[in-house]
TrEMBL record, chains A, B, C:
This is Enoyl-CoA delta isomerase 1, mitochondrial. Signal peptide: none annotated. It comes from Dissostichus mawsoni. It catalyses: (3Z)-dodecenoyl-CoA = (2E)-dodecenoyl-CoA; a (3E)-enoyl-CoA = a 4-saturated (2E)-enoyl-CoA; (2E)-tetradecenoyl-CoA = (3Z)-tetradecenoyl-CoA; (3Z)-hexenoyl-CoA = (2E)-hexenoyl-CoA. Keywords: Acetylation, Fatty acid metabolism, Isomerase, Lipid metabolism, Mitochondrion, Transit peptide. Its EC number is 5.3.3.8. Key enzyme of fatty acid beta-oxidation. Able to isomerize both 3-cis (3Z) and 3-trans (3E) double bonds into the 2-trans (2E) form in a range of enoyl-CoA species, with a preference for (3Z)-enoyl-CoAs over (3E)-enoyl-CoAs. The catalytic efficiency of this enzyme is not affected by the fatty acyl chain length. Pathway: Lipid metabolism; fatty acid beta-oxidation. SUPFAM superfamilies: ClpP/crotonase. It is found in: Mitochondrion matrix. GO terms for molecular function: delta(3)-delta(2)-enoyl-CoA isomerase activity. It comes from the Eukaryota. GO terms for cellular component: mitochondrial matrix.
Length: 275, 275, 275
C-alpha cells in the first residue's frame, strides 16, 4: 500500500512560514484562503500538502460553507506546478508529488463548499487548473495577467483530467485549440471564451468574490451540493478509478531524458529572464 | 408489475374540463396543443396523463408531422410540477406521479414530430423541461416572464435527465451555474445562453412557431427523424434503462421529512403571495 | 477478409490526370494539398484513394509537419461525396466506397500533422466533413459560398461519426439544429457558430493558412500530437471499433429503393440546374 504524503503532515518543514493563510468569518460562513508562497505560489509538494490539509479542515467544519481562493503574492495567482519537484528527482518523489496534485484537484473539484477563485494575478498551467476547479472565477482586469493551460509550450502534456476540467469549463472545441497551442489568455479573452466568469478592477476582486459567494450561499446547501456533485461526478470518478495508472503514466513521462531536457531548458530560460 | 397511470385513462375525472386542447390542421400537418389548466398549467398527474395521451394520438396519426405546444393561460407557459402531487402524499402516489413526468419527457424528447415550444409566459422548472424537449423554442419578449430549472431554490434537485436535457441545450458550464443557483432567466438572457432560440412580441409567438415549423417540415421526415433520434438516443436510453431506480430515488427523496418541510414552507409562501 | 481499395493503388485509372497535387516545402515542413478533380472535387472512390495515399505518404515523412488542404477548382472546396458512387451501384461497390470515406476521415482526423483547411469555395456535406477534420479552418469571405452537413436535404442521414465530428466542433445544440435542417451556412454565419475559425479575402486564404500553421508548428510536435490524440481518441475509437457495422448500415440504407429514388431525383435536379 502506498502512503499518501498528505496523511503525513509531520514531513512538512516547520521551520518555514506557512504557505497558506486562512481567514474564516464565522458570521458569513466564508473562508478566504490566501496563497502566500513567495515568489509565485508554485505548487510544490509542501504547498499542496498544506493546501489540502487546509481545505480538508474547512470541509469538515460544518459552519464553513464557502471558500474564496486568492493570492497574497503580487502579480500572480499561482505559477502552477513547481518544476523543481519534477526535474532531476527520483521516480518515487515524482510520484508522491503527482499524487498531491491529484489530491488538490479531487478536494477542490469535489468540494461541498461554494468555491470562488479570486484570480488577482497570472494563472498559468496548474494555477489555471486550480482556478477551474472552483464554482466561479473572478479575474483582475489587468491586461498584463494571463491564464491558461500552457503545458505544450513547455513540451509537456496536460493530463486527461486537466483536459476534462477545461472541457467542462469552455467546451470541446475551445479546449482543443487552447491545449494544442498551450494558449495563455488575457483577462478579456478569458472572459470571452468562458475561462473566467467576471472581470473586476484588481483591488475589487476579493470584494466581488465575497458578493458572489453570498448569492450562492442563499441556495439551500443540500440541494446545491447534490446538484454540483451530479454535474461533476463522471469527471471525478474517471480520475478516482485511474489514479494509480495516472501516477505511473506521469512518472514514466516526466522522467524521460527528452522531457527532463525540455524542463531543464525551460528552467534555464526562466533564470535568465529573472537575471 | 406496476400499471402506468397513462394506460388507465378511465381514472381521469371526467367532471373537469379537458386540460389540453388540440387543434390539428390537416392541410399543414401541424397540431397546436393548448395547455389550459387554470391557473398556471401545473403539471399534475391528471394533466400529464392527458398530455401524454394527446401526444401519443398525434404521434400515431401519420398525417400529423408537427406539434406546437403553447399555453391558453395568461402570463404562464407552465408553472412546472404540481407540488400538491408530492406534498403529504403516499409513496405510491408520488411514484405514479413521477412515472407520468418521465413519460411526458420520453414522449416529447423522443417525438418523431417536429416540436416547437411557443413559450407565451413564464416557464420555471418542469415548464422549462417541457420546453427544452422541443426541437425549437420561441419565447414571448416580455421581461416579466422567465424560464429556467429553479429546483435548488425550492431545496430540491433537478434529476439527471433534466440535467442532461439542459446540458444538451446550453452546454455543461452554463448548466452547472444555472442548476446550482436555480436560475430563472428573462427572455433576453435565455436567448443569450441558448435556452430559447428566438424572441417574438407576445401576440406573434404562435405565428412565428407556425412559420418555423413549416421550414422544418420542408425536410424529408425520414431523414430528419433518424437524425433527431441519433442525436438524442444516448440521453433517452439513460432514463429508459434507469426508469425504476429513478422513481425509487425520487420517492425516497421527496418523502423525506426535511424535503416535505421545504415544500410545505414553499406552498405557504405561495399562498401568502397570492393573498 | 476484405481488401481495402486503399491498398490497391494499381486499380487507379492512370489515364486520368492526378486528382491531388501536393507541394511540399522542405524549408517550412509544410505541404499544400491541392484538390484538382473537375468540376467540383467530388469525393469519388478514386479521388479518396488518391487523397489517402497522399496523406499517408506525408504522414510517414518525418520532415513534413503541417498540411494545408485547399482546392484548385473555382468556387468550390469540395462538393462532398460523389453521388454516382452510390447510385445504381452494387452493394460491394457501395461498401468499398464507404470504406474509403471512413479511411479519409480516420487519416485526417487522427493525423499527427498540423492540418489547416483553406476553404476557398463552397463545402457542403463530405466537403464540410473533410474541413472539420482539420485543426483549423480558414474560409474565403465570399457570401456566395457556404458550408455545412446538408445530408437531410437530400433525404439521407449524416452517419454518427459525421455527427460526432460536428459536435466536437460546434457543440450538441447547434449540431442538432444544423443536422436536422441540413443547414448550409454562409461564411459569416459559419464563423459565428464556430464551424470555421477565421475568414479571409479569397486571394489571401492560403497565405493566412500558411501563417496559422507556422504558429502551430512553434509548439513541440510531441506534446501537441499527444494532446490532439487525447482530445480526439474517443471519437476515433468509436468508428474504428464499429467500422464494419457502419459499412453494413450504409450499404443497407443507400441501396434501399426509396433512397435510390431520392438520389436519382437529386441528380436529375442537378443536371437541369446545370443545363
Amino acid at each position: 500500500m502506498c502512503v499518501s504524503p498528505l496523511l503525513v503532515p509531520q514531513q512538512r518543514n516547520y521551520s518555514t512560514p506557512p504557505k497558506i493563510r486562512v481567514e474564516f468569518d464565522q458570521s458569513t460562513g466564508v473562508a478566504v484562503m490566501h496563497m502566500q508562497s513567495p515568489p509565485v505560489n508554485s505548487l510544490s509538494l509542501d504547498f499542496l500538502t498544506e493546501l489540502c490539509i487546509s481545505v480538508e479542515k474547512l470541509e469538515m467544519d460544518k459552519s464553513c460553507r464557502g471558500l474564496i481562493i486568492t493570492s497574497a503574492q503580487p502579480k500572480v495567482f499561482s505559477a502552477g506546478l513547481d518544476i523543481t519537484e519534477m526535474y532531476g528527482k527520483s521516480p518515487e518523489h515524482c510520484g508522491a508529488f503527482w499524487r498531491s496534485v491529484q489530491e488538490m484537484w479531487l478536494k477542490l473539484y469535489g468540494s461541498n463548499m461554494v468555491t470562488v477563485a479570486a484570480i488577482n494575478g497570472s494563472s498559468p498551467a496548474g494555477g489555471c487548473l486550480m482556478a477551474m476547479t472552483c464554482d466561479y472565477r473572478i479575474m483582475a482586469d489587468n491586461p498584463r495577467y494571463n491564464i491558461g493551460l500552457n503545458e505544450t509550450q513547455l513540451g509537456i502534456v496536460a493530463p486527461f483530467w486537466f483536459m476534462d476540467t477545461m472541457k467542462n469549463t469552455v467546451g470541446q472545441r475551445t479546449t482543443e485549440i487552447a491545449l494544442q497551442l498551450g494558449l495563455l489568455y488575457k483577462p478579456a479573452d478569458a472572459l470571452k471564451i468562458g475561462l473566467v466568469d467576471q472581470l473586476e478592477p484588481e483591488d475589487q476582486v476579493i470584494a466581488a468574490a465575497t458578493q458572489t459567494i453570498s448569492r450562492w450561499l442563499a441556495i439551500p446547501d443540500h440541494a446545491r451540493q447534490i446538484t454540483k456533485s451530479m454535474m461533476r461526478k463522471k469527471t471525478i470518478d474517471k480520475l478516482t478509478s485511474n489514479r494509480e495508472s495516472d501516477i505511473q503514466y506521469f512518472v514514466n513521462f516526466i522522467t524521460k531524458d527528452s522531457i527532463q531536457k525540455s524542463l531543464g531548458g525551460y528552467m534555464e530560460m526562466l533564470k535568465k529572464r529573472r537575471a
